[in-house]
Amino acid sequence: MIKKKLKINFKDKRGSITDIFYKKNIRHVAIIKSKSGVKRGDHFHKKTTQWMLITKGALEYWYKKKNSKNKPKKVILRTGDLVETPPYEMHALKIIKKNEFIVFTIGKRGGKDYESDTYRFSPTLINSKKANESYKIQN
Hints:
By secondary structure, this protein is mainly β. The chain has a single domain (23-137), classed as Jelly Rolls (Sandwich). It is 0% helix and 54% strand. It contains no helices and 11 strands. The strands form 2 sheets. Strands 1, 4, 5, 6, 7, 8, 9, 10 and 11 form a 9-stranded antiparallel beta sheet that branches. The protein is globular. The protein starts with a strand and ends with a strand. The model has no long low-confidence stretch (mean pLDDT 90).
């Protein structure tokens, strides 16, 4: 997981320009809206890298590397935050405040391919305090 605050690349009297990506081969973009208290995720991707740009609200992003013996980590993401999720990173979201984010993807993630590189697991990472938890992969 790489969390990044976007920086202004150009600014003048008219306003500013902020690059989100430069020289990335983005294959899919989606807008996801969630209500407060909703949980999402509890999956990982084997080939797909995705970025989430928080455009409204806030969420807890829980993550750990697949097969890691470490306990899951949590970071709070708010409007303007960008987080990168690499392949084999287990991740789950808990929406804190009514939320909207844009997901940018390299790899299969849209249309008929939406679930083709998604591997769900249980139990959830959210609020887990266990370091060496055993996760059942459902795919």
